[in-house]
Amino acid sequence: MHHTHIENTGSPFHHAAVYNMFYQVHGQKQWWFVDPTDSILGYPPATVGRAVGIFMALWTHDYDKDEFPLFQYAPVHTAVLNPGDVLFNPPWWWHSIKNVTETTVG
Question: What DSSP element (H or E) covers 104?
Answer without folding.
Answer: strand 104-105
